[in-house]
Amino acid sequence: MMIGVRWLKVLRDLLNNKIRTLLVVLSIAVGVFAIGMVAGTYEIILRDLSSSYKAVNPAMATIYSSSFKEEFLESIRKVKGVSGAQGQRTLSMRVKVGPDKWQKLEMAVIPDYKDIQINKLKLISGSWPPPEKQMLIERSGLSDIKANVGDEVEVESSDGKKRSLRIAGVVHDINQNPTAFSGRIYGYITLETLDALGLKWELDTVNITVDGDPPSEEYIAQVGQKVWEKIEKSGRKVFWMYKNKPGEHPAQSMIDALLMTLGAMGILSLILSGFLLVNTISSLLTQQVRQIGVMKAIGASTKQIIKMYLMYVIIYSLLALMIAVPLGILAAGVVSKFIASYINFDISGLAISYPVLAAEVATGLLIPLLAAILPVVRGARITVREAINSYGVGSAGGFGTGMIDRITRRMKGVSRPVLLSLRNTFRRKGRLALTLITLTVSGVIFISIFSVRDSMMLTLDDALDYFKYDIEIDVKNWSRVEQLEQTAMNVPGVSKAESWSFDGARLLKSDGRESESTEIVIMAPPSGTKMLKPIVLQGRWLVPEDESGIVINTEVLKDHPNVKVGDRLAIKLSKSDKQKTYWTVVGIVRGVMAGPFVYANYSYFSNVVGKPGQGINVFAVTESRDPDVQMQISKTLEKHFKDSGMPVSRIQTMSDLKAQIQSQFNVIIIFLLVMALMLAIVGGLGLMGTMSINVLERTREIGIMRSIGASNWAVRRIFIIEGVLIGILSWGLAMIIALPISKLFSNMLGNAFMHAPFSFTFSVGGAILWLIIVIVLAAVASFLPAWNASRLSIREVLAYE
Fold first, then answer.
1. Environment class of 113 (CB within 10 Å of its CB; exposed 0-12, middle 13-18, buried 19+)
2. What stretches of 526-589 adopt beta strand conformation (E)?
3. Average pLDDT over residues 727-742
4. How confident is the model at residue 513 (pLDDT cuts 50, 70, 90)?
5. Which long-range contacts (CB under 8 A, 24 or more apart) does 7-15 make?
6. 625 and 496, same structural domain?
7. What is the mean pLDDT of residues 489-494?
8. Rounded to an integer, what distance in angstroms lies between the CA atom of residue 286 and that of residue 87?
9. Residue 596's pLDDT band (boundaries 50, 70, 90)?
10. How many helices (DSSP H) and strands (DSSP E) are in the chain?
């Protein structure tokens, strides 16, 4: 009978105080939801990205070389360790995407569509294989090309000739960066269409897979080097080799970093919800101290009471799990689809993951129980005499004798209700401390996230300010610098023009072999150029006296992390007949998410590549700052260069480049805002829980104040001021702590995504927004329970326990 009565009491207490129960349940649910969402998202992505990627049998190494016939692949397949080899050709073209608007088109020529064994394509719609004079389009570029299956589009090859190709179908190529990120549209044609374009039936790329399941990266490099040597022994030139991590999508590391950050915030949310639980259980034990004494007086043991009050926690947790688990599953599906759309892969659908479910249940039960165990044990150990003599919820040992009380007694010109609010704020110092920790941590993370967001945007602005030109024009053939610059200056609206030299390059290893990393672009501006405003992180920028001196950006360090200022590098240039050229690193500048760049002085570099006084691109500054006007000027420039006998291979405005870089930032920013929202909810619930407990504990005091003439509004105002004071205190603490944490967080994410810290700025807007949030939350959190208490009759509140 005793057992049944005990559990009935637990249920009755929970139902009689629905607001308190709801706040605790929601607080736990937010943390569990975050963990479930992140863990579920990670499992879905790990499952679908991995399976989708493996299904296409991705190349483990790709070697780019001079042209070869398809028959040459047979000799490569015989290289020891090679399990498969497939050739293709890559053409750099342009496709017309609007009136006088062209976009990069990376065209892959595949010899045999019926026998694609490596980097397989998935047909979404249309014809397979594409008929002659038709092409397939990768699905991520459909919105840019603004055409459908069956439509004809105009393409331009590197020789400047324009032809029409019909879109035969749409495919999914998981190996390609989405068009939104790369700015390229991807197309696929047959050898017959290559012939129709007036080009030879030749290939220039070898994709290989190697033995092993899975093979190590070292083994892939060894086999790739054997293929490299095989190609060179055949008299052909190898430009570079790219290796993939076996079985891992190239974007996996970025996804891991994002989800780990979000997961850490989820665990932090759950821990902070534990503080509200501690406050709630402590308040409940204080409120029911006489009931505990009575239960002990009639035979209840300390162990039985501990079990009973831990049952409150278990019920809170179970109710939270009922809310959080299904919402976490749904959110995981939404977030997974969002990430998949950016990375360009498909999600197979939602599924209940038992490991994720077990993690949610374990954390949702364990963390609240750990948080509650200390106050429960401490409260249950009270003796019968101490319990019967307790004053209950209104007691606060030492109240009126503390430092705050002495300070408030000396304050002049402040109304008694405000003084009462000041004193009550510090009445329960332990509860205040837990509430301040919850709100302060929430505020620190909230402000830090907004600071990181603003720092990212400042980094983007710095990146754009890095380039002091508005339009970049690449011409197909080398021309005199003076001719290039004058041709650009002849176009109305252009205020300045400058021609540079550039070349593709590879860093050489100590044994003379080319590195297997991404190809590097060497840009050679004239000495004293005003078209660049680099952010120097180490060393210095180029000076006119530098001949073999170079400056590298941080993107180069991604593949060559050991390179430092003062190092002498051996570099192989694409346009130079020399097998090796030697350069000394004089500085390192911040990269701008545009790839690995090396900068050298034009006068020296142009001689090295055998093109003194010549350039192959032009950078133009326009008089107008309007992106639409700049786009129109770019179209005029393209026509003018063509009419002058210098056809353009590529033209890009800085506004287009900004949109491309911005799309790479958007994913991170959206995730950061989700994190900020989660922490704001937890902090708000913590404050609301504390104020509800404070009001409930002082219900009898409310009755006394009303009995001596205090109006309902006067009573409510005391609690509102108290809540606002707590909010402002937490905001002040958060401001102090947020500055270094924001800097640390910004540096960590910058190094993770750009291999250099973001340009840091503290978000004043984020700090002000958090101040507004905590004030509004404090007012609402205080008003609602005080309003409920003020509706009770004087007799009811004086009899409240």
1. middle
2. 536-539, 549-553, 568-573, 581-589
3. 87
4. low
5. 7/308, 7/311, 9/308, 10/308, 10/311, 10/312, 10/315, 11/315, 13/284, 13/288, 13/312, 14/312, 14/315
6. yes
7. 88
8. 77
9. confident
10. 24, 20
Where in the sequence is the domain holding 668, given as residue range(s)?
Answer: 399-465+656-801
Residues 518 and 507 both lie in one domain: yes
Structural domain total, the chain: 4
One domain, residues 197 and 268: no
Residues 483, 584, single domain; the answer is yes
Q: Which residues of 175-209 are buried (b: 16+ CB within 10 A; e: fewer)?
A: bbbbbbbbbbbbbbbbbebbeebebeebbbbbbbb
Q: Check whether residue 332 and residue 201 sit in a common domain.
A: no
A 10 A CB-CB count for 387 gives 20
Q: What does the block give as tokens for 202? A: 């030749």
pLDDT band at 442 (very low <50, low <70, confident <90, very high): confident
* Residues 633 and 693 occupy one common structural domain: no
Say yes or no: 568 and 508 in one domain.
Answer: yes
Q: Which residues, including other chains, have CB under 8 Å from residue 481's CB and lie 6 or more apart?
A: 499, 613, 614, 615
- pLDDT of 276 strictly over 70: no
Better-scored residue on pLDDT, 138 or 576: 138
pLDDT band at 399 (very low <50, low <70, confident <90, very high): very low
pLDDT tens digits along 633-643: 888 888 888 88
Helix axes 252-287, 429-466, angle to 10 degrees: 160
pTM for the whole structure:
0.68
